[in-house]
Amino acid sequence: MMTNHNIAERMLMPSAAKTVRNYIVCYSTPLVAEDISSGISEWDPKAMVQVCGNPGELAEMLERTPSVHAVIAAEPSAELSRSGLLRMLGEKGGHLIWLATRGDIEVAGAHPSVVALDVPFTTETLHVALNSLRKP
């Protein structure tokens, strides 16, 4: 039996008819990175998720990947902007989901391609952040 909760979940998931979307999780703790990767795959079953541990590896992955839907990282968007990674991500058509504390989010300047996700977060709030990246 389909519950209202199941219907809501299906509405948040990307269309199965869409092409594969690429995601990169950049997080220094492998267990956390894998947990985020699993959350992405749960939300978007056709997702191609790559995992790296630092901005240098992220730059290499961005160079090799033709299009990126989103990067999920704890690096502040200002640092990624200074290093050119945010521009590089934008050129790939992607957005940044920035894992940050509430205090960091409040003091950081807003960037149009950045969605801030308050840590600690749940799989559900990760899915909400991913859903906010969908184009109308």
In the CATH hierarchy, what is the architecture at level 2?
Answer: 3-Layer(aba) Sandwich
CATH topology: Rossmann fold
Span between termini: 30 Å
The outline comes out as globular
- How many beta strands in the DSSP annotation? 5
CATH superfamily: Glucose-6-phosphate isomerase like protein, domain 1
Give the number of domains.
Answer: 1
In the CATH hierarchy, what is the class? Alpha Beta
User: Mean of the pLDDT scores?
Assistant: 84
Q: What ranges have pLDDT less than 50 throughout 5 or more consecutive residues?
A: 1-11
Structural class computed from helices and strand pairing: alpha/beta
The topology string of helices and strands comes to HEHEHEHHEHEH
Sheet of most strands: 5 strands, parallel
**Helix fraction by DSSP (H/I, runs of at least 4):** 40-55%
Beta content comes to 15-25%
Rg is 15 Å
Q: How would you summarize the topology of this molecule?
A:
Layout: H1 4-12, E1 22-26, H2 30-43, E2 48-52, H3 55-64, E3 70-73, H4 77-82, H5 85-91, E4 95-100, H6 102-107, E5 114-118, H7 123-132
Parallel strand pairs: 1-2, 1-3, 3-4, 4-5
Q: Which features characterize this protein?
A:
5 strands; alpha/beta; 7 helices; disordered N terminus; 136 residues
Task: Explain this structure.
Helix 2 (30-43) packs across helix 7 (123-132). This protein has 136 residues and is an alpha/beta fold. The chain has helices at residues 4-12, 30-43, 55-64, 77-82, 85-91, 102-107, 123-132, and strands spanning 22-26, 48-52, 70-73, 95-100, 114-118. Strand 1, helix 2 (30-43) and strand 2 form a beta-alpha-beta unit. Mean pLDDT is 84; it is low at 1-11. It has one domain (20-132): 3-Layer(aba) Sandwich (Rossmann fold), CATH 3.40.50.10490.
